[in-house]
Each structure stands twice: as C-alpha cells, then as structure tokens.
Amino acid sequence: MSKGKIIWSIIIAVVIIIQLIPSGKPDVIESNKNDLLVNNHIPDSVSHILKNACYDCHSNETIYPWYAYIAPVSWLVSRDTKIGRENLNFSEWELLSKMDKAKMLDEIVDEVESGAMPMSIYVVMHPEAKLSMSDRDMIMNWADDFGEKLFE
C-alpha cells in the first residue's frame, strides 16, 4: 500500500471514529409555556426576525440542520447553542424578573447594534438570518419600547 493510501485511510478512519463521540446537543422542546412570543404581543415583523435570526441559539426550539449531526461541526453547534441559551433563552422569558428582562433587552440592543448578533458564522449557513439595517433598527426600537413598557 502506498504512503498516500495509508494517510487517506487513516484520515477516513479518524473521521468515522469521531462520529461516535456525542456532541451533547441541547434538547429541543417545542412547547414552551414561558416563551416570549407565547406570552407577549410582539409585532409579527419582530417575531419573524427573532424566529429567523435568534431562536435557533436563544430558545429551546432549536432547529438543527443536517450538518449539526456531523462531527466536528456538531460539537461547535452544540457549544454555540448551549452558550446562546445560557446568555438568553426566549423560551424561559417569563421566568425572568422585570429587571433581568430589562437587562436582556438592553443587551439585545447592544449586540444587534454592534453587529455581534446574529453571529456571522451563523448567517453564512442561514442567509435568512442576515439582518438589514432596517431589521436591526426594528429590533432595537422594539427592545427599547418593550423594555420601557415593563415598568409602566
């Protein structure tokens, strides 16, 4: 067997073996009684943006694409989803205090305004998540208005 065939055989074996390592993807829960969109009147335009650009990482309703099942990408998807849910989980919105909600809304404004969210790597694989300037303005205005209404 040639050296090239041995190297390719090893690479293929490693790729197959790493598929056996679990990614630990967070569970998907489709019915979330404490969800932001279930319990609040959110404009359809904002709700649409949140679902397309935020909910995969920031809710329990993650839709895992095909590549989320193939290591090593599955490990990255798992990590990003866990971190996203830890930082902000729209499915658990109603469990937050008013102050925590206000803080989350301020962070949404900061992240969207700076362009940090949605993550650029996410947008590459999910072009529907790309936010235009008007989308960004809409989300920021909604978050500001919603935050103010929390204390009325």
Percent of residues in helices comes to: 55-70%
Describe the sheet with the most strands: none
Count every helix, treating DSSP H or I runs of 4 or more residues as helices: 8
**Number of strand elements:** 0
Number of domains: 1
Class inferred from helices and paired strands: mainly alpha
Net shape: elongated
Ordered list of secondary-structure elements with their pairings:
Elements: H1 3-18, H2 36-39, H3 44-53, H4 55-58, H5 73-87, H6 98-114, H7 120-125, H8 133-149
Helix pairs in contact: 3-8, 6-8
List keywords for this structure.
152 residues; 8 helices; single chain; mainly alpha; elongated
Give a structural overview.
The protein is mainly α and 152 residues long. The protein has one domain (23-149). Helix content is 59%, strand content 0%. It is built from eight helices and no strands. Helix 3 packs across helix 8 and helix 6 runs antiparallel to helix 8 (133-149). The protein is elongated. The model has no long low-confidence stretch (mean pLDDT 93).
Provide a compact summary of the structure.
The chain contains eight helices and no strands.
